[in-house]
């Protein structure tokens, strides 16, 4: 039972992670990753500062011990000289006191020498740790700078991806139906072309009706009457009718010119006969 519950817990945890990754904003996740890296770098700097501080403190203790060692050496030497001088002067009591003082300085000197040796070892270790800490900070700083540069690159790619998605969406809306009341350009074009073709068909059919032909006949009759009236006016004024153009004569009706030509031939024949 416990094993089954653990499996279900793992399953729902994985499912929740997948759902979270699908809905999470990549820009926010990127900022979180950069913030975590910056916080980690700050903690590393703090730890490195403590290591460097330990080295500095060890160096200060070593310097004080070396200074004390030098003073003890001087004091022990001075005590030996004063004991020897007192012995030469015959003052054995003072000589013994100075000798005991010199021994005390010598004992203290031995202890400080051991302390100095220990501090030297500690300082060496602290210096190595400090160098490692500084190198780690420098390396992590370089990695952080690379991450910051990578963030700018990823943000730029993210903006380009969003823009391309908008372009793809806009292009898709031009060829696909967005909703029930949103036809595509193809559908609208087909509808307009069908309406235009239908209107042209009606116009073509309306040009072949009886009423149109009657209007054409009426217009021809009016033109014929107008030409006849112009001929009468020219006759009264003694003005000859204008010569038709070559093309007009060729295209004209043969019945209009043929009778005149046939009438003229008999007359010419009659005039030629008496002569």
Describe the structure.
The protein is mainly alpha-helical and 275 residues long. The protein has two domains: 2-172, Helix Hairpins, CATH 1.10.287; 185-239. It has helices at residues 2-23, 26-88, 92-175, 185-206, 210-237, 246-251, 254-272. 6% of the residues are buried. The model is unreliable at 248-275 (pLDDT under 50).
Task: Please specify the SSE layout and strand pairing.
Layout: H1 2-23, H2 26-88, H3 92-175, H4 185-206, H5 210-237, H6 246-251, H7 254-272
Helix pairs in contact: 2-3
List its salient traits.
single chain; mainly alpha; Helix Hairpins; rod-shaped
Oligomer: single chain
Please provide the count of β strands.
0
- How many independent structural domains? 2
CATH architecture of the largest domain: Orthogonal Bundle
The CATH class of the largest domain is identified as Mainly Alpha
Q: How much of the residues is beta strand, in percent?
A: under 5%
The average pLDDT score comes to 77
Distance between the termini: 149 Å
Structural class: mainly alpha
Report the sheet with the most strands, covering strand number, pairing sense and barrel closure. none
* Overall geometric form: rod-shaped
- Report the total helices: 7
Helix content: over 70%
Order of helices and strands: HHHHHHH
Query: CATH topology of the largest domain, what is it called?
Result: Helix Hairpins
What low-confidence regions span 5 or more consecutive residues with pLDDT below 50? 248-275
**Whole-number radius of gyration?**
62 Å
């Amino acid at each position: 039972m416990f094993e089954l519950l653990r499996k279900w817990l793992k399953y729902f945890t994985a499912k929740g992670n997948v759902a979270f990754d699908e809905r999470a904003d990549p820009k926010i996740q990127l900022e979180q990753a950069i913030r975590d890296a910056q916080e980690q770098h700050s903690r590393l700097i703090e730890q490195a500062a403590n290591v460097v501080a330990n080295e500095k403190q060890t160096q200060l203790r070593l310097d004080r011990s070396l200074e004390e060692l030098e003073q003890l050496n001087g004091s022990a030497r001075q005590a030996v000289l004063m004991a020897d001088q007192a012995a030469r002067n015959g003052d054995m009591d003072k000589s013994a006191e100075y000798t005991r003082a010199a021994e005390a300085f010598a004992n203290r000197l031995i202890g400080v020498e051991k302390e100095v040796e220990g501090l030297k070892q500690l300082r060496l270790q602290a210096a190595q740790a400090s160098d490692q800490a500084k190198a780690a900070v420098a390396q992590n700083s370089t990695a952080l700078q690379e991450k910051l540069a990578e963030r700018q690159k990823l943000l730029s790619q993210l903006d380009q991806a969003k823009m391309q998605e908008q372009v793809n969406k806009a292009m898709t809306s031009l060829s696909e139906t967005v909703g029930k009341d949103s036809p595509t350009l193809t559908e609208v074009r087909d509808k307009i072309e069908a309406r235009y073709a239908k209107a042209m068909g009606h116009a073509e059919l309306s040009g072949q009706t009886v009423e149109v032909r009657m209007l054409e006949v009426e217009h021809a009759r009016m033109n014929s009457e107008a030409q006849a009236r112009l001929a009468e006016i020219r006759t009264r004024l003694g003005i000859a009718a204008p010569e038709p153009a070559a093309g007009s004569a060729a295209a004209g009706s043969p019945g209009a010119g043929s009778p005149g030509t046939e009438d003229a031939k008999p007359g010419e024949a009659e005039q030629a006969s008496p002569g």
